[in-house]
């Protein structure tokens, strides 16, 4: 077990390092002109040279990547042309070209927003999906089952950004979307995110209805469920105690992977509802050619994705003892 | 409708992978039917699938004959009808005989013409990306599964690597870099050139990230197929490797390939429109539904038709494609039937 975790950890780290090098090559070694972006239109060659010098952009490529990695691990110092020394503590991802803020701080500000959206949405779609899926499986073939399956098929086929957009524009029942930190004001936090949660939750609930329905139908057909019924246990207890427990294991695995996926794909929800998360940060960076920020979001995104995959794999082996580690 | 696959190598030869199926489904026909044939006939009986296919073909028709349809209306997608716009930028006319869907606020371009032309980038980007990812995915999957050894290990690592990248973030980042390479960050960059670079970088990014999941699927299938007797027999007979790959293995993979392509197509339509809507996909002057939607958001109260026409277009197209994809999957794998 320990060996398996270590091996998975090693491969996860290798993926992150290769992502780092590949995206670094893409962003910083391409013939881009960061100094021009920072300096603006009225800029002297001396000023550009000074900026290049202070950012280390005149160093050879290998040195630059080395400095960047060193910054992540132990931090680094920037010396501006005026001789001002700026300390950038680890994990240092550089400074935003346009805002001058440390990228690490910008990411740390944006991450809770994305986490709030995705986790809140996950609660909604997991709850709604599992409930309707279980009910549909219990009453298989009934009108309710057909309606649930039909609706989920339709909802799944409508483009998500269109649904989110229409909700944002026309569903005025929701309080206006905004982000307030949870610890500042929990009520404002929840009401500002309600529209995003409902949109993300109800559209994704469709797939969870299908997953949990299929899984529950399979589980309810097993011998031990028949045995439980023949012992005279009430139907409710059979379904919810014996059935749901076993039937939900595969659904929980999908949930883990989905949450990881959505953490890096919350861009649509964020930009449509105007919530300042990672996605919105990367879009703003795109418009301003703010490469350190783009690089930071890509890096954070891949770390989150790789870590979540790892966690799901490991948790799955605990949930289902039949899974053998290889 | 003609069957989609009419390759004699595929339909004439009884496939050794499914010896029991033909006799089970058609006990009276002496001639064996390939699984693909069976799936297609199953698909033809599916009403939802046939209606969805009809809707999809209608959109293809609209996209192909966009200039003709616009000419029929008597408008084109780029002419500015400034005379029909009031001082605040709102159109003076609604739906008229000259402008079937009305005109755009501010610029006054004809909405029907923009709508029919807007079907084009959606279908071209989604279609091209589906073709590219299918070809690359199948080829890499075949090679990785069949070659085994270090080739397989390297290719599998690349597949896993690509699947563990946050692709939407890259889809935003890569065009930014490509633009600086090919156009530069100058403010006065040529709009046509920028639009072109954005078009190709969108296709490039979606292709780079799209092939890996199919390659993984195909690799798994090949791993089990290559130990089968007919493959062993072909190798013993001295059939060259490329022929084993493409004449023996590939026909047996038609099912998963068609299913994966038909499910991929609507997701790429959505991705193109979504990224364009965010402002990181296609740009003006390309007429695109995603672009129209993002402009129309500002005017959604005063001029709802501006927003709703592209919204309805993309929703119906994606709905039809998704239902068709589901039906194709069910036809090829009856176990998933609803």
Automatic annotation (TrEMBL), chain A:
This is Peptide/nickel transport system permease protein. Belongs to the binding-protein-dependent transport system permease family. PROSITE patterns: ABC_TM1. It comes from Actinoplanes campanulatus. The lineage of its organism: Bacteria, Bacillati, Actinomycetota, Actinomycetes, Micromonosporales. Keywords: Cell membrane, Membrane, Transmembrane, Transmembrane helix, Transport. It is found in: Cell membrane. One of its GO terms (cellular component) is plasma membrane. The keyword Cell membrane applies. Residues 111-316 form the ABC transmembrane type-1 domain. The chain crosses the membrane at residues 12-30, 113-135, 147-174, 186-206, 293-319. GO terms for biological process: transmembrane transport. The keyword Transmembrane helix applies. SUPFAM superfamilies: MetI-like (SSF161098). InterPro entries: BPD_transp_1_N, MetI-like, MetI-like_sf. It is a multi-pass membrane protein.
